């Protein structure tokens, strides 16, 4: 991975983490019963499902090749039977769930950004 790409990714993650945490710790005002609100409950469930999809998909990807084996392999199993990049799909679901549960512009913006970036990266799997 080029150093420039790594630096941009690191900078973005630090900035996004700051925005999300700053909003939640300093500006967000939720009712006392927010954790029983349907937006929070559905968002939390989406986040959890997305995380489980992501973890399972990453497990499949890590075990594609045996030690010492090289070459291209197509992942099979889980949601890879239905989508090209199941790990990206899981991450998009996670962030959409977070956006819904937090009910914030910051969460929604990051979910939209994640969708746009990861969909384009998933499409690149189909180009040589």
UniProtKB/TrEMBL annotation:
Any Pfam family the entry gives: Steroid_dh
GO CC terms: endoplasmic reticulum membrane
Ranges where the 3-oxo-5-alpha-steroid 4-dehydrogenase C-terminal domain occurs: 1-127
Signal peptide residue numbers: none
UniProtKB keywords: Differentiation, Endoplasmic reticulum, Lipid metabolism, Membrane, Microsome, NADP, Oxidoreductase, Transmembrane, Transmembrane helix
GO biological processes: cell differentiation; steroid biosynthetic process
Domain of life: Eukaryota
Segments crossing the lipid bilayer: 40-57
Keyword NADP attributed: yes
Family membership: Belongs to the steroid 5-alpha reductase family.
Name the UniProt record assigns to this protein: 3-oxo-5-alpha-steroid 4-dehydrogenase 1 isoform X2
